[in-house]
Amino acid sequence: MKLLETWVKAPFLRGSSLLLVGECVQDICPDLYKRFSESRVVLTSCPEAESVGSIMGKLASIIACSKPREIKVLTMDGSPHCFALHAALNQALFVTDLNIPFQHFVVVEGKAVEVSPESVRLGRYLHLVQKCIENHPQILEELVRYSLEHRCFLKKK
Predict the structure, then answer these.
(1) Per-residue pLDDT, 30
(2) What are the tens digits of pLDDT across the range 54-99?
(3) pLDDT, mean of residues 39-51
(4) How far apart are CA 115 and CA 125, in angstroms?
(5) CB 10 within 8 A of CB 62
(6) Rounded distance between C-alpha atoms, residue 77 and residue 55, angstroms
(7) Domains (range + CATH), the chain
């Protein structure tokens, strides 16, 4: 079910275990999607096609009106669009000021990797990311493994 097309007071949302998932995850990693979606209400979204502000507002409304028991986010790692789903959840929880357990997961090489809410927050502050790179330049060697964009940049350099 699409996040933005879901009524925030739908009975199935009240006290549910929610999975907010990037629209493409089901097609790219069907087994992982199936495992994560078990016993959860699944809401899909694609920030490339939808307004991030609308996503955050809808999440905040669902949290305030239906008070889910927990929320998990699962997206593709490295996607700037998918990153927005994680940021939208952090922001919705901040705005509602409710204490609901939540977790962030990204798909890396077909596996779900949990990332902290702090890593999502840090990703929004590029000057702090720059400090991390300066203090740990070896992380750029790992970036080469995952980022086609970075490999192309290095070839042109």
Answers:
(1) 97
(2) 999 999 999 999 999 999 999 999 998 999 999 999 999 999 999 9
(3) 96
(4) 16
(5) no
(6) 19
(7) 3-116 (3.40.50), 125-157 (no CATH)
Token pair 């949990």 is at which residue? 114
Q: Which 8-state DSSP code applies to residue 40?
A: S
- Residues 17 and 40 sit within 8 Å (Cβ to Cβ): yes
Quote the tokens at residue 60. Answer: 């905040």
**How far is the C-alpha of 69 from the C-alpha of 76, rounded, in Å?**
24
Q: Are 55 and 48 in contact (CB under 8 A)?
A: no
CB contact set of 106 (below 8 Å; sequence gap of 6+): 74, 75, 76, 77, 82, 112, 113, 115
pTM of the model: 0.94
Strands 70-76 and 102-108: parallel
Structure tokens at 59: 């999440």
